[in-house]
Write a structure and sequence with these properties.
The protein has 465 residues and is mostly helical. Helices cover 67% and strands 2% of the residues.
């Protein structure tokens, strides 16, 4: 690349600093909710993680990261002043300790490890703090509504990818912003796999599935005849279940089996809303899911038990065999990593097994026994918290929301057993984990929502000296 090209690349990538500047301005003005809804969420869901500002000796700052940092600082301030930490708060702190300890002590190049740990802090801890302290209770409805609308907008570029096998975001990034991205998408069964702003079909399938579960709450509110202000057009779409149908089609267009199976599990979870006895329904659904998981394990064991894996010509069976071999081959490598693991950048890569399609295995490999144990506890506590909230909340709308959030997190936790957690997915997942932790009895009064969104809760004060 010539000097002029490098200069053009730097100038164009500086465009991605704009969301950060707008977010800072809104935060200083005390309009935290506006920064979250109108700057951060669009950047998170509509702009790829590769659309980032790259400065020397600093981690890449994507548009979503830039918009998140000012909001996250405010959220951390609120979290620090909120009294005793919850179990999940402690687990997130331990997760960050694990990350920084591994990256500083185990990476071959310490500076690279520090930058990697900083990126994790932004994408995981700040996103968690924002979900924990910004959304509930007043912004719940507007956040879900806007989230669903933004994800639905990805349908048009997704159809282009499915039909032509080319990524609209990749083409724009390469030709306009001079970013080294791949303009093509993976082809399966003669069509492109929809990946849109997530830059990966599996990750896109997870986000579509999670959004499908969150949209179930809007369906519930619309059917129950609440005073929530959907807007005329969106209310009509929800009346005929068009958003749900489109989101399910999006999952199918990704041609990703893991997220599709996870959506099936979430569908069972969402049926809990239909029962008067929430506790009994929860145990029944849990029993069905446990039975299904055991059956799937037995089936996959037989499906992947072949004498000569190299002779397999079916792509689906080959993919399943790859994952089984991956889990077996990396066991001694994980054990050798010990308590702190190998580090994200210094982990061994075995021949033919570069892609680790299991986030739990990847965490164990990179962050060792400590990081893996904390990650498992985070998953367990997240599910436990949502189940307890669905039992304890009095309002039907609140209980329905907790169950829909449980469905969304079911999609995530099931899916990451078959794929890594990359690009925007850490922010999305931990934003919802933080949100799950803070669910309280809320309001769906549109007047109250509007006033809450406009009322500043945190304002920098001018001090005269």
């Amino acid at each position: 690349m010539q000097t002029g090209d490098v200069l053009d690349c730097g100038l164009m990538s500086a465009f991605f600093l704009l969301p950060a500047l707008i977010s800072v301005y809104l935060v200083i003005r005390g309009r935290i909710e506006t920064a979250f809804l109108s700057v951060y969420l669009p950047c998170l869901l509509l702009l790829p993680d590769e659309f980032a500002l790259r400065l020397p000796h600093a981690p890449p700052i994507s548009a979503a990261h830039g918009a998140l940092i000012p909001i996250g600082i405010v959220a951390l301030y609120r979290l620090a002043r909120s009294g005793l930490p919850s179990i999940m708060d402690v687990l997130l702190v331990l997760s960050m300790i694990s990350t920084f300890a591994t990256e500083v002590l185990r990476e071959r190049v310490m500076n690279d490890g520090i930058l990697s740990a900083m990126t994790s802090f932004i994408a995981v801890f700040l996103a968690y703090a924002v979900g924990r302290k910004i959304v509930e209770p007043g912004l719940r409805f507007e956040t879900i509504r806007r989230w669903v609308i933004l994800v639905l907008l990805l349908g048009i570029p997704g159809l282009v990818e499915w039909r032509l096998g080319q990524s609209v975001f990749g083409i724009v990034g390469e030709r306009v912003f001079k970013i080294a991205v791949v303009p093509m998408v993976q082809i399966r069964s003669g069509h492109g796999r929809m990946e849109v702003s997530l830059s990966d079909a599996e990750l896109a399938g997870i986000v579509f599935g999670m959004t499908l579960s969150l949209n179930a709450w809007l369906l519930y509110l619309n059917k129950a005849g609440t005073r929530a202000n959907f807007g005329r057009v969106f209310a009509m779409l929800e009346k005929y279940h068009l958003p749900s149908m489109l989101l399910f089609v999006y999952v199918l267009l990704t041609q990703s089996r893991g997220p599709l199976i996870a959506v099936g599990a979430a569908f069972l979870v969402l049926q809990i809303v239909r029962f008067k006895n929430t506790k009994l329904a929860t145990f029944v659904v849990a029993a069905i899911l446990a039975t299904g998981a055991y059956g799937a394990k037995v089936y996959l064991s037989r499906y992947t038990d072949v004498a000569d894996p190299s002779a397999i010509t079916d792509e689906r069976q080959g993919s399943a065999i790859y994952r089984r071999q991956m889990n077996e081959i990396y066991k001694p490598i994980v054990a050798a990593g010990g308590f702190l693991g190998w580090g994200v950048l210094s982990r061994p890569v075995l021949q033919g097994q570069f892609s680790i399609d299991n986030e739990f295995l990847l965490i164990h490999l990179c962050y060792g026994d400590f990081g893996y144990f904390v990650y498992v506890l985070i998953a367990a506590e997240n599910i436990r918290r949502l189940v307890v909230r669905s039992w304890s909340l009095k309002s039907p709308e609140d209980r329905a929301f907790a169950i829909c959030m449980l469905g969304a997190m079911t999609v995530f936790w099931v899916s990451v057993t078959t794929v890594f957690m990359g690009n925007q997915l850490p922010q999305i997942a931990f934003l919802l984990i933080g949100w799950s932790e803070s669910i309280v009895p809320g309001t769906i009064d549109p007047v109250a929502i509007a006033k809450n969104a406009e009322r500043p809760k945190f304002v920098f004060k001018r001090v005269l000296t």
